[in-house]
């Protein structure tokens, strides 16, 4: 997939002109994996952990400061490390699976996570995407690790001691471990998970050390049994020792895992088996530089460079590659849907409710061949479960709402993805739009019977989040229509989805100009408070959800009374005090995050409203989009442990920033267009996969110079408020002339507005 030899000096480039910076700084050097880790249940500043991984890697590794099973596996404010954990956690809310940990200690053998824990300091910690190092003060041990796609290499530097140990914790809820002294090896498996797995789920692991064991013990439910070598228990573990050791002497461990078998784990171990620690580090750094080097940024502000490349790193972690390579070189996967080992691609650990908005469009722009593989993975998910996933971790999970797999599939087709069965995905989209997954309400379409019959889901039929579901289904229907149309499907199949795409109108309340819950008899719910986070909406209120008509802003403008009225409604979002609606329900972290940001009802920490500032472009007031987009970037994205303003959510919040900092954003995925905002950098070069380059310059941009005064495309004046994907793909030179004052004449003509479905001529409409 990756060709290290392609990494040339064009990527190892001077990315900043900041005084004193090294002249060979590479993109990955700007990445800080600790951004977003200063989070907790009550308030998210990202809810991230330092994911030490390869791009889209099957396995991530992270230092573990939380207790076993705690979704907040690493928090910046913690002061003790309890282990180094293999993790597949997409978010603390979905928690983890396929997990176990390893921990070096000195002194007396200790398995208990509190007793083995060690104080550490961020001053003695190095976190890079491809490398992590920390000094464990209580044990006088430095731990270093570097991952490959499915394996990792550890290096423990011990003091002079006769009591050096490594703890292997296979975790509770069912685990197995076996020590094989003659091979300096430990094998085991963990079944611990948070749902979404078949009954035969296991994560098999193998660990080999570079020296023999002087001590060996198995652990059963916390009890250490010296010289016992094999345990199957609710909570299994092992302790191995090495002595004597001189000060500074290193112990190397090589680790791999598989969801298929011990034999496959041994095959996966070949990724690091014959390599030195430094070789794995160097290969990881080169691979990250190849991925991050798709965007070449030049800017004097080092904090912005750190924010950008850290965001791009987060945008290329999920969805993770769940496939493995067998002994014959063929790609296979353990199905998280039916428990079988099957050929081909599989990707997981992403929620489409979040990532359809900008993460997948970013993949289609910068990493299209990767999304080709992901689309094949979706084909396999449908074959193996009967539904496309909406939130997979690793199989179907009961999380969030919507049928946004339609957006993922449609945007891929519109951007010319190839190499997978599109006709089968057409069948999958139709099936998902007209049925509900029998095991929970988050896959398929919960409430589809009401939606298909009435054109909306009523508020009085015990289907919660009914307004939010109805609005998303309308957008999803448009995606299905566009997908079918692009495939050349007959109108007899596609027309119904074009009609249903306008269902958003059924919940528009002319008296408030907002989307409002409606009963089955057609009457709106009473006692309407637009700021209330009520059961009709998902993690938000009417101000957040009323603008979720991604595919047809012009239709929404018409409903709201025209451009000026629409722009006024957008203005109002930023004006209504954030404390409004705070007492409408029990406090959840999304509410608190909106409140503390002090931007009115604008809640960037949650997804439904993230596109909203760009909607000014549809109402002939693009300068307001430019103002607000830059304000959001400058205020809410920082290269610090509290650098996000809510859940990072599998790359979505990061991808929003990546797009926005370039100067455009995909308001309506599957439209083939990006909507213009305010570029944040002096100069950016996009190195597209087809060999073409997109050069973006905004040399006059600054803290106050956020307005687009003029834009030229390949030297010619360009007045539109949108950019087409197909045009960027040919290579382009965009020159933004920025100003500290709005240009109220640019981008105000009707033809300058981006795509809206209402502007298309649809037969019968």
TrEMBL record:
Gene Ontology CC terms: cytosol
GO MF, any single term: carbohydrate binding
InterPro entries linked: 6-hairpin_glycosidase_sf, GH-type_carb-bd, GH92_a_mannosidase_put, GH92_N, Glyco_hydro_92, PNGase
UniProt entry tagged with the keyword Nuclease: no
Top-level taxon of origin: Bacteria
GO term, biological process aspect, one: carbohydrate metabolic process
Any Pfam family matching the protein: Glyco_hydro_92
Every Glycosyl hydrolase family domain range: 264-740
Cofactor: Ca(2+)
Signal peptide range in chain numbering: 1-22
Keywords: Calcium, Hydrolase, Signal
Domain Glycosyl hydrolase family 92 N-terminal: 30-258
Region (Disordered): 739-765
Keyword Cytoplasm: no
PANTHER family: PEPTIDE N-GLYCANASE PNGASE -RELATED, PUTATIVE-RELATED
Subunit structure: Monomer.
Name of the molecule in the record: Glycoside hydrolase family 92 protein
Record organism: Sphingobacterium paramultivorum
């Amino acid at each position: 997939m990756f060709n290290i030899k392609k990494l040339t000096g064009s990527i190892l480039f001077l990315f900043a002109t900041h005084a004193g910076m090294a002249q060979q700084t590479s993109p990955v050097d700007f990445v800080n994996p600790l951004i977003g880790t200063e989070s907790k249940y009550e308030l998210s500043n990202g809810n991230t952990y330092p994911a030490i991984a390869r791009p889209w890697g099957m396995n991530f590794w992270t230092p573990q400061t939380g207790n076993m099973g705690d979704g907040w596996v690493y928090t910046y404010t913690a002061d003790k490390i309890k282990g180094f954990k293999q993790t597949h956690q997409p978010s603390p809310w979905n928690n983890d699976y396929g997990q176990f940990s390893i921990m070096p200690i000195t002194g007396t053998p200790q398995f208990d996570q509190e007793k083995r824990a060690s104080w550490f300091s961020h001053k003695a910690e190095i976190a890079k995407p491809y490398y992590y190092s920390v000094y464990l003060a209580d044990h006088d041990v430095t731990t270093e690790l570097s991952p490959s796609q499915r394996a990792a290499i550890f290096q423990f530097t011990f003091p002079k001691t006769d009591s050096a140990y490594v703890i292997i914790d296979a975790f509770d809820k069912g685990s197995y471990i076996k020590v094989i002294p003659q091979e300096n090896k430990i094998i085991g498996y963990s079944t611990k998970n948070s749902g979404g797995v078949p009954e035969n789920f296991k994560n098999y692991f193998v660990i080999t050390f570079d020296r023999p064991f002087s001590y060996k013990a198995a652990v059963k439910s916390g009890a250490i049994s010296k010289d016992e070598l094999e345990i199957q228990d609710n909570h299994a573990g092992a302790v191995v020792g090495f002595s004597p050791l001189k000060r500074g002497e290193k112990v190397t461990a090589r680790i791999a895992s598989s969801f298929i078998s011990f034999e496959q784990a041994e095959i996966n171990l070949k990724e690091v088996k014959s390599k030195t620690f430094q070789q794995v580090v160097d290969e990881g750094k080169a691979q990250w530089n190849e991925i991050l080097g798709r965007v070449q940024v030049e800017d004097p502000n080092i904090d912005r460079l750190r924010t950008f490349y850290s965001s791009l790193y987060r945008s290329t972690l999920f969805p993770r590659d769940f496939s493995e390579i067998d002994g014959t070189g063929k790609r296979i996967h353990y199905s998280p849907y039916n428990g079988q080992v099957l050929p081909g691609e599989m990707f997981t650990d992403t929620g489409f409710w979040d990532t359809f908005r900008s993460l997948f469009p970013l993949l289609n722009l910068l990493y299209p061949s990767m999304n080709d593989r992901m689309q094949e993975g979706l084909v396999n998910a449908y074959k193996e479960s009967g539904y496309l996933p909406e939130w997979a971790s690793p199989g179907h999970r009961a999380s969030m709402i919507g049928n946004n797999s339609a957006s993922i599939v449609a945007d891929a087709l519109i951007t010319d993805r190839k190499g997978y069965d599109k006709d089968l995905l057409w069948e999958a989209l139709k099936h998902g739009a007209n049925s509900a997954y029998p095991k929970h309400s988050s896959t398929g379409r919960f409430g589809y019977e009401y939606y298909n019959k009435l054109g909306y889901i009523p508020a009085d039929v015990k289907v919660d989040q009914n307004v939010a579901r109805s609005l998303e289904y309308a957008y999803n229907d448009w995606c299905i229509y566009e997908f079918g149309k692009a495939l050349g499907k007959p109108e007899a199949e596609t027309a119904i989805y074009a009609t249903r795409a306008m269902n958003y109108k059924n919940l528009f309340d002319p008296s408030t100009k907002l989307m409002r819950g409606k009963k089955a008899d057609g009457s709106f719910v009473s006692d309407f408070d637009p700021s209330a986070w009520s059961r009709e909406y998902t993690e938000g209120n009417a101000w957040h959800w009323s603008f979720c008509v991604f595919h047809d802003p012009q239709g929404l403008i018409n409903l709201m009374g025209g451009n000026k009225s629409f722009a006024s409604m957008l203005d109002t979002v930023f004006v209504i005090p954030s404390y409004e609606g705070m007492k409408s329900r029990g406090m959840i972290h999304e509410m608190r995050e909106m409140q503390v940001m002090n931007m009115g009802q604008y809640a960037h920490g949650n997804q439904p409203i993230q596109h909203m500032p760009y909607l000014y472009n549809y109402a002939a007031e693009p300068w307001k989009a430019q103002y607000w987009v830059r304000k959001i970037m400058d205020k809410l994205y920082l290269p610090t442990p509290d650098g996000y303003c809510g859940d990072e959510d599998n790359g979505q919040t990061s991808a929003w920033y990546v797009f926005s900092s370039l100067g455009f954003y995909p308001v309506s995925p599957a439209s083939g267009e990006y909507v213009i905002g305010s570029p944040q950098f002096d100069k950016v070069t996009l190195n597209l996969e087809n060999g073409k380059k997109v050069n973006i310059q905004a040399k006059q941009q600054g803290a106050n110079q956020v307005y687009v005064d003029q834009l030229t495309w390949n030297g010619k004046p360009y007045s539109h408020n949108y950019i087409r994907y197909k045009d960027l793909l040919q290579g382009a030179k965009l020159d933004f002339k920025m100003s500290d004052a709005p240009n109220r004449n640019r981008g105000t003509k009707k033809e300058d507005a981006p795509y809206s479905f209402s502007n298309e001529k649809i037969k019968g409409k």
